[in-house]
Design brief:
seven-stranded parallel beta sheet, 15 helices, globular, alpha/beta, Rossmann fold, 377 residues
Length: 377
């Protein structure tokens, strides 16, 4: 075998044949990584490999001609490297691949230490009474935003040192989605009081709506006539069923004045296009994700504390609500500028995350070459 990884598989785990790309970022991650790897020298083919029993059909939300997708059994004899990303390989499949000399990479893109810790402390079973951690990875790749909290966790359990690898994103899906939306989905500024959006997942402390709501509250107290509405998505159940959340929200003037609504789940581009002027966000230990890039690519002002992309939008530090409110007021004042020029500046700064960025491609090419030169584990 040469040092080149000519045939690469990236695992996904389909739950439905027509699964939405906007449920979470994991399948988008696999697609964007495939776009990067196929640009690496010596790579002949990159295939998305489904590890579940769900059939691969034309109902998939991506073009299988552009992004070839197969069931594991269809492609298992035709791979040099398998990158386990969105679908786990069990011991039997691992053994099979290893007998064929296939390298196995664990690609880690979730805050798994946080998820596991919160689940354990809250008494919510994660693994259904059984946990398989594969001990036979040849390499461990971790994206930068989860390295801080989860890298040591991954290294000990997966029994191999980790390498921090470039984060990759592409506008392919959000541009396609935008074609069906008003103005192509891009932000068109409107005069008058602003409509704010908070769109955190609200499934754990990493990305939760509380601090963005407090930032909106501080700005509203300072200039109430400038804020028309605060919209908090992924929060309907909290607002209806969680007495502690309800009690906290009822302390806010913006809620008491009936200028806040708590809504269910929406996909990002559609929700933005139908009534948002500025997005307010907050994260803990996850300082870069697709949501920030989606919002800024479409030209919406983003108030955020993501330290791995401070050049985007309106950045505030850590948990500084006062600074966040000041940046929000700054965004309100600047919102009627040239939207095209703003959007193009944002896109230029996002370019370093795109699959065709030369540094991104060369870094992954180096990772693949080093992987293929090391002895098989």
């Amino acid at each position: 075998m040469t040092a080149h990884a000519r045939r690469i598989g990236i695992t996904i785990g389909l739950n439905r044949a027509d699964e939405s790309l906007w449920t979470n970022g994991i399948k988008q991650n696999a697609v964007f990584l495939s776009d990067t790897l196929r640009r690496c020298p010596g790579v002949e083919r990159v295939t998305l490999v489904n590890t579940t029993a769900v059939p691969v059909t034309s109902a998939l939300p991506w073009d299988v001609a552009r992004w070839p997708t197969c069931a594991f059994d269809e492609v298992k004899d035709d791979l040099d490297v398998v990158i386990e990303l969105g679908g786990q390989l069990d011991a039997a499949r691992t053994d099979y691949l290893k007998t064929r000399g296939v390298r196995l990479v664990s690609y880690c893109c979730g805050s798994e230490y946080v998820h596991a810790t919160e689940a354990i402390l809250a008494g919510r079973p994660v693994w259904g009474g059984g946990l398989f951690v594969n001990p036979r990875y040849d390499d461990l790749w971790v994206i930068p935003q989860v390295a801080g909290n989860s890298r040591p966790y991954f290294e000990v359990l997966r029994r191999v040192p980790a390498r921090v690898v470039p984060f990759v994103w592409s506008p392919a899906f959000i541009d396609e989605r935008g074609r069906a939306l008003p103005d192509g989905g891009v932000h068109v500024p409107k005069r008058g009081p602003v409509r704010l959006a908070v769109m955190e997942p609200n499934i754990n402390i990493v990305k939760f709506c509380l601090y963005p709501a407090l930032i909106a509250e501080q700005a509203y107290r300072a200039r109430p006539d400038d804020v028309a509405l605060l919209q908090v998505t992924n929060a309907l159940a909290l607002a209806q069923q969680n007495p502690d959340f309800i009690a906290l929200m009822n302390q806010l003037d913006i809620v008491r004045d009936h200028k806040a609504v708590f809504l269910g789940r929406y996909d990002t581009p559609a929700f933005l296009a139908h009534g948002v002027d500025i997005v307010v966000s907050h994260q803990m230990e996850n300082p870069l994700n697709y949501f920030y890039l989606e919002v800024c690519w479409l030209g919406y002002p983003l108030v955020h504390n993501a330290a791995l992309c401070p050049e985007l939008g309106y950045y505030y530090r850590a948990n500084d609500v006062s600074e966040g409110a000041a940046r929000l007021l700054e965004a309100i004042d600047a919102r009627l500028g040239d939207p095209h020029a703003w959007r193009e500046r944002q896109r230029a700064m996002i370019a370093r995350f795109l699959p065709d960025d030369p540094l991104v491609v060369s870094t992954y090419a180096t990772l693949l070459d080093a992987l293929m030169r090391r002895p098989l584990r």
